Amino acid sequence: MNAPAPDAPILFFDSGLGGLTVLGPTRALLQTAPFVYAADYAGLPYGKKSNDELAARVPALLGRLVERYQPRLAVIACNTASTIALAHVRAALDLPIVGTVPAIKPAAELTKSGVIGVLGTEATVRQPYVDDLSARFADSKTVLRHGSPGLVTGAEAKLRGEAVDPDTIARAIAGLRDQPGGDRIDVIVLACTHFPLLQDELQAAAGPGVTLIDGAAGIARRIAYLTEGQPWPAAAAPGVAVFTRSDDHPPPPLAALAPYGIGSIETI
Fold it and tell me: If you ran DSSP here, which 8-state letter would residue 178 be given?
């Protein structure tokens, strides 16, 4: 396989702005890497869509984005899309694809109480993929799950500079705590890339005895490994954010995205 051109970008894909939590650690490792950040605002929220809808939508949309931006690698920076559509995307596209899965393995290694919480979207927490991860890496642990679509909305609002409803945070944590054994949770997996945007609020609600973890740093290391030895530009250039058109979800102001190295916004 020929080496990509230095200006061939890394494509990050999510339903919304949650994938920015994966973009940040990746830019820290690959400081001059060009990138395109794509958010499917027309399909937001993914957590309420059926498996069949996402298995069809995600590969088709990623195909359009790959054709348009010619990336060297694509990152599905979305747990819901990854757990449902990753195999479909890999079958459809001829380039490396990095997915995002709940960090159940490191959570199982961290827990002292033996009880882990998994906080995700409704679609993610119901997936057999999560059953499989739990069976493989946490078979001797108790894994409690809760789907909280309100946290996606809250994370998007926070990034736009709006207030986060404290009841949304409280309900999410209570959804885990109120289950049998939930009072013993000492590690919570943030199984949606949106949720680390609410790290401070969730930590305050969960309490100091609970560790919150996500998989972003591991994904960044995987991207760095897969692109090792490839040429990069000598200096970093501003990235591009592209949004699918939605009357209900207009793109955020560029000022909200600038801290992530994004310099322009496009819509498709």
Answer: T
For 85-128, the pLDDT digits (tens) are 999 999 999 999 999 989 999 999 999 999 999 999 998 999 99
> 264 has which bridge partners?
240
Q: Write down the pLDDT at residue 47.
A: 83
**Phi, psi dihedrals of residue 228, rounded to the nearest 5°:** -60, 135
CB atoms within 10 A of CB 259: 10
Quote the CA–CA distance of 46 and 28 in Å, as a whole number.
28
Q: Are 121 and 80 in contact (CB under 8 A)?
A: yes
Instruction: Give the residue from 58, 64, 63 showing the smallest Cα distance to 83.
Output: 58
Non-local CB neighbours of 115 within 8 Å, separated by 6+ positions: 141, 142, 144, 181, 182, 184, 185, 186
43 touches 49 (CB < 8 A): yes
Instruction: Find the DSSP H helices in 138-215.
Output: 149-159, 166-177, 199-206
Residue 87 tokens, joined: 């195999």
User: Which residues are identified as catalytic?
Assistant: 78, 192
pLDDT digits (tens, 9 = 90+) for 24-46: 999 999 999 999 999 999 998 89
Cα–Cα distances (Å) from 69 to 12, 37, 45, 64, in that order, read 11, 11, 24, 9
With 0-12 / 13-18 / 19 or more C-beta atoms within 10 angstroms meaning exposed / middle / buried, residue 126 is: middle
- Amino acid in the structure at residue 182: G
